[in-house]
Amino acid sequence: MTTVLVVDDHPVFREGLVALVDSLGWARVVAEAADAGEAVTAALAHRPDVVLMDLHLPGGNGIDATARITADLPDTAVLVLTMVENEDAVAAALRAGARGYLVKGSSRAQIARALEAVAEGETVLGRGLGAALARLSPRSDGLAAFPQLTEREREVLGLLATGASNGEIAGRLYLSEKTVRNVVSAVFAKLEVGSRAEAVARARDAGLGGAAPGLGT
Where does the record place the HTH luxR-type domain (predicted)? Predict the structure, then answer.
């Protein structure tokens, strides 16, 4: 059973998240918090597997709370769920130790899938937020080696380099497998390679392939 701490200063939204988590069958909420200080205190007291963390909180902010929690509880995964949708916030959350970042408005299925993924050690970003990874070293240099690729194609190439299957990439980026296949084909054409192995070799030569824990080959 995956244990979860829910952190949000809006009671109605927090209650909805609690109900969602408790409805999953494989997870349960062990504590709630409405501000940054409460979040840290509750995390240390209950040592949850996952913290669902808002960013705008009274008494501090979710980034600082995330940093304190992940420093003291490295086995606890923080999944940010917030209204803030920009690369700076995503990059800051990841630097603070968050394993996932979703925006409010994500579906129940997306939240549930992300909860399960971060609990298993994966890093999950909501749709359109993957470009923030390019702001974090060492991936930025590797991605910069492929200026001919679009943002989405770079995201997919980075995951290909980790050994991820099309299904795993689809799950990470909230895409259909058909879309992933089309993007992979576009990557092959732009890199002028004829196989997945060649694309992976090119990506790894550029330094990609070591920044996506939890993905199988």
Answer: 142-207
